[in-house]
Amino acid sequence: MSKERSTMLDENRLKHMLGVARLCYELAEGSETYKREMWLMGFLHDIGYEFDENNHAEVGAKLLADTFGVNGISFPIEHHGGPMQFGERMELLNYADMCISPTGERISIDERLKEIESRGKTTIPLKTTLRNNRFAKEEQNEKEQ
User: Fold this and answer.
1) How many structural domains are present in the chain?
2) For the domain that residue 32 is a member of, what is the CATH number?
3) Within a domain: residue 40?
4) Is the terminal CB of the chain with fewer CB neighbours within 10 Å at N or C?
5) What is the mean pLDDT of residues 113-126?
6) In the prediction, which pLDDT does 79 show?
7) Which helix (H) or strand (E) holds 48?
8) Is residue 86 scored above 90 in pLDDT?
9) Does 64 fall in a domain?
10) Has residue 5 been placed in a domain?
């Protein structure tokens, strides 16, 4: 008899993933192929929550790389939300992830950080990441003008 497990990809998580995907697509600069790749990366960035809530990024990236060989998007997925930036794809993914609420609405980075902290999670790596994020800097510059 197989043990039942509850899914971690509830309706709100899927709304968040879709919101991140749409923002990645909207902000991506380049070919339609690149924009669609960014959409896919945004949508799949939290797929690992289905299997492991605590290590969702690592588990999701491994699932994608092992199953589909999509290493071009698996690396940014594995490291999203961490303190380091590895190029535009990761910067865009991290920025979009911080601008979409858990229910898929566009929110400010400050609101998102407060929401994450309200769940008892640390935001120190995210704050470090966002301090050097090109997309977050552009948003801040627009606010100041």
Assistant:
1) 1
2) 1.10.3210
3) yes
4) N
5) 89
6) 83
7) none
8) no
9) yes
10) no
Average pLDDT score over residue span 41-64:
92
Q: What angle do CA 40, 44, 47 make, to 5 degrees?
A: 165
Written as six digits, the tokens of 129 are: 């990441």
Q: What is the pTM of this model?
A: 0.88
Residue 67 in this model has a pLDDT that exceeds 80: yes
pLDDT band at 7 (very low <50, low <70, confident <90, very high): low
34: domain range?
11-144
| Inter-CA distances, 26 with 20, 30, 36, 62, 73, Å | 10, 11, 10, 27, 17
Answer whether residue 72 is part of any domain: yes
- 97 CB burial (10 A radius; 0-12, 13-18, 19+): buried
Of the candidates 38, 24, 6, 15, which has an alpha carbon nearest to the alpha carbon of residue 102? Answer: 15
The dihedral of CA 26, 27, 28, 30: what is its sign? positive
